[in-house]
Amino acid sequence: MNPIMSRSEAADLVIAARRRLGLSWAAIAEEIGAPLVWSTAALLGQHPMTPEQAEKACRLLQLDERVAESLQTQPVRGADPAVMSDPTIYRFAEALAVYGPALKELIHEEFGDGIMSAINFRVDIARRPDPDGDRVVVTFDGKFLDYRW
């Protein structure tokens, strides 16, 4: 019996297939019927997919059942330090390092003592035209969870 393919190996195959087939992440998300950012994260190994989602994605990407099996496993969430040094990803870390304390203060002022959930959570990305150069708009939408004693 062969071991289940690693999530990172499956993600590498997904990325290669998507590029070779000329598919967008949006087209894949539409095919599996899930939000764009969630679908992309799941295909990159950060969320488990349902059997139906994994089968649809693999059919579209022309990948076999070993990849579909891997996409359904429970992931180890987080990022490799090498991934965190990527300039795009690092800028998110930098933005949170600079604005995180202010956001925390503003959340507490508006909602009270608690946190924004990253489990009951949605995230979206959009492009906004601007005369100075297009803007990247990232929306974090997390449920407020108050601390209860």
Molecular shape: globular
What's the number of domains? 2
Question: Which bin fits the share of residues in helices?
Answer: 40-55%
Mean pLDDT: 94
Which CATH C-level class of the largest domain is it? Alpha Beta
Q: Report the radius of gyration as a whole number of Å.
A: 18 Å
| Run of helices and strands | HHHHHHHEE
**Can you name the CATH architecture of the largest domain?**
2-Layer Sandwich
- Order of strands in the sheet with most strands: 1-2
The main pleated sheet reads as:
2 strands, antiparallel
**CATH H-level homologous superfamily name of the largest domain:** Cyanate lyase, C-terminal domain
The count of strands amounts to 2
Q: Give the helix tally.
A: 7
- The span between the termini is 49 Å
For this structure, the CATH topology of the largest domain is: Cyanate Lyase, Chain: A, domain 2
Which segments are poorly predicted (pLDDT under 50) over 5 or more consecutive residues? none
- The secondary structure category is alpha+beta
Strand proportion, as a percent range, falls in 15-25%
